[in-house]
Amino acid sequence: MTKWKNFKRSVGLGLLTFGAFTLGRAETVALWLFDEQTGVYPSSVLGDAGPGSYFLILGRGGEIIEGRFGRALRVRAPEPFAPHFREDSSSLVRDGMKAPPAIEGRVMPPLTWNNAVFAAAFLNGDQHLRRAPFPHPTVTRLNLGNGDWTVECWLQIERAPTGAGVIFEIGTGPRGENDVLTRLALNARADGVELFNDSGAGKVELPFDSGALAQGSWHHLALVHRSGGLQLYLDGRAQGAARPVRMAALPAGDEDYFSLGRDARWEHPLAGALDEVRFSDSADYAENFVPASHAPVRAAAEPRVTQPLLFAETATGNAPLALGSRRHLFLDDALIEAQRDITFRVHPPRMEEAVLKGSGWISVVDAGPEDIRLYVNGPEDSVALYTSKDGVNFTAPDLGREVHGRRNIVIADPATVGMVMIDPNGTSDEKWKLISGLRDRGGVFVYTSADGLNWRRHISASLPFWAGSAVNVFYDDQRGVYVIHNRTDYYELPDGHTDRKSLLTEVTDLLAPWPFRPVTKTETAAAEAAGVHTSAGDLDPWWLDNGPLAPGGFGLEYPVAFESDPRLDPPDTDVYNTRAQKYPWAEDAYVAFPLFFFHYFSGGPVQRQVLAHPDEGRGSGLVETQFAASRDGLHWKRYPRPAYVGIGVHEDYPVRRSYVGYGMVRRGREIWQYSYTRSSYHDPWSKSPAPDVIHRLVSRVDGFVSADAPYTGGEFVTKPFTFTGSRLMLNIDTDAAGYAQVGFVDEAGQPIAGFGVEDCVYINGDEIDYPVEWMSADGERTRDVSALAGKTVRLVMRLRGTSLYALQFKPNPDP
């Protein structure tokens, strides 16, 4: 009973997510386009463009190749298989490396990696394996009966068949144990097809009028059932007259299955490839037609680019920096040429009220002056929405979708391993993006929306991996790329424990499959020889990790974007997630809020490991959020102390793990972030003393890091630059007894008359945009520096007891 209840919900997930969205005709049941990347590993998810989301899993007997439209599924002989794995692993059966005991009376052995030589399938037997929650095909419209229906595909024969080649097979199961099935196959002569329907029609042979198919060419095949008659079409032309048949749907089966390219025993392989396999519940063709693609047509994205990077790592030469009117944050010394007694200090945010209970995953989006949205965990990892006018008081809107009694659900899929953003490059109907791994299916997917309320999952997985933590994406408007961080658990510390890292992927089009290249054994061996510590000693290849029915995790496919630093961090401390973002209110400013996990039990002296003992009542460790800054989104400067959000007690709440969410909101002179806060240790031995909550965090605008001078004073000189504008504005805090003065010098380092540091009126105060003034010997004061615009200058900054956050040249305000 539970299985069928769960199945009904899993079908509902796809319908709920897609609404009335279908591709091709309105009667589409399933449409497999196979537009995933070429070379994706076995166990990768193959998306369904139809309304039911009938995902397939790629087996060792299939591969993705270039096809008739985009890419296609090729049925192949499996490559030699000789994996390396640790014999003492506790999950060998679940991961498909070893078989469980055979079920008494069964002919077929349990599924393992060794015999997972299907091409593409989903199945509900072999429950010993990790798996996605597959639908039951026998209670879907894939189960062809006596009503109207069409099955069509593009077919390429690339070699002489050695027997009948299966196009598709659906059965009640147990797989390979009976003939309660429906199968469509190309016959052994490749001059017709065979339809077998155990429940009704029996075996029906349908020949091609033109004889055998030519090898190497793509042909369109359509089988149409209407009013008890079966009509075959090849390349849009009817093949003979309709044949009277009596079709009947199969009975439902607990262990039912659906397979493309091979039968239930993974035999009778198709001698070629399939593209755009489509099922519909209508008789779509009544006369000859011109076959066409059913895939949606979309224009390639054109990324919006603003200004080039000012501090690119590849910059050469001594040309002055074209500062223009950019707002420059003092995240580091990028603008400074020389300095005395200046330090850079990180400013942790102020933790304010708890705005919600629960969550586990947060993205905040500022959708308007009175429309702050928090996207959080809903029941069963669905995506729930809370809205607020003031950022403090949040309500749950009734969106008409319900999961376990909650009606503020925007996506019912388990898509809470990612983030939400408004895409500056998105079209009006795809303006909003949610990028997430699917917790129960694997694969990284993009969802799009026009309003942030009604979402549609993109067809193909963007990446064919299981997401180890929240996918992190931001658009870099200065480089014209989307920057993507995904966590990998493939790396190891020297003591053999997991060393979590974040990997880098960059794309210019979020909706096209992201770049992917499979890792070879040679590359794995080369990495080990170079001293890179990985899990290859435990399992190789790594994509075997989750078994043949669920995607594996990330390995060596992408470069490392963020990791712990052995010169800086304690041993056995690694990075959960980066939460990296482009700062929205200044150029050349990238910020990250990496989550660092300090492990008790992994390694180090026993004096450390004892903290993980159950008698301590703690757990496996603590988590803190740190701060990091970058000038290009690629090279990061970390500020580990003070922790951006550390542990402690806030209004009697014990903060032991704080996970800063994605996104920022600006109101006045404040920036708000939201943090998922937990009162427990990681993997706690005891019950949490308080429920999980979401806290609001408050920072000063631009206020992550400041260039500070001590109370006794300090100063710095900038690199040469040019600017546009008429006024110099500072984000600065001198407190009461501190001050600052600013002056211009020319290319030779000489003070510019009237604008020297000695001429500067004392800057004293705490302002986000403080206008700098100069005063001449006769007492005349000015803020207008337009006479210096376009010239090469430097700034001399004299500070005393002061924090300087940012500067910007601006035009004069309107009268």
Describe this entry's structure for a reader.
There is one protein chain. Helix content is 4%, strand content 37%. By secondary structure, the protein is mainly beta. The strands form 14 sheets. Strands 1, 4, 5, 8, 13, 14, 15, 16 and 18 form a nine-stranded antiparallel beta sheet that branches. The protein is elongated. 48% of the residues are buried.
Low-confidence segments, given as residue ranges, are 1-26
Give me the Rg, rounded: 31 Å
Helix coverage percent: under 10%
Topology, number of strands: 60
Short description:
The chain has 815 residues and is mainly beta. The protein has 3 helices and 60 strands. The longest helix is centred in the N-terminal third of the chain and has 17 residues.
Which key features would you list for this structure?
815 residues, mainly beta, nine-stranded antiparallel β-sheet, eight-stranded antiparallel β-sheet
SSE map:
Layout: H1 2-18, E1 28-32, E2 45-46, E3 56-58, E4 62-66, E5 71-75, E6 84-85, E7 120-123, E8 149-157, E9 165-171, E10 181-186, E11 192-197, E12 202-207, E13 218-226, E14 229-234, E15 237-238, E16 243-244, E17 257-260, E18 272-280, E19 321-324, E20 327-329, E21 336-340, E22 343-346, E23 350-357, E24 362-368, E25 371-377, E26 383-388, E27 394-395, E28 409-411, E29 417-422, E30 432-437, E31 444-449, E32 455-457, E33 472-476, E34 481-488, E35 501-507, H2 521-529, E36 539-540, E37 560-562, E38 573-577, E39 581-582, E40 590-592, E41 595-599, H3 606-609, E42 621-625, E43 627-630, E44 636-639, E45 648-650, E46 653-655, E47 657-660, E48 665-667, E49 670-678, E50 693-700, E51 705-709, E52 714-718, E53 721-723, E54 727-733, E55 739-745, E56 766-771, E57 774-775, E58 781-782, E59 794-800, E60 802-810
Parallel strand pairs: 19-53
Antiparallel strand pairs: 1-18, 2-3, 3-7, 4-5, 5-18, 6-36, 7-17, 8-13, 8-18, 9-10, 9-17, 10-11, 11-12, 13-14, 14-15, 14-16, 20-60, 21-52, 22-51, 23-50, 24-25, 25-26, 26-27, 26-28, 29-30, 30-31, 31-32, 33-34, 34-35, 35-37, 38-41, 39-40, 40-43, 41-42, 43-44, 45-46, 47-49, 48-49, 49-50, 51-60, ...
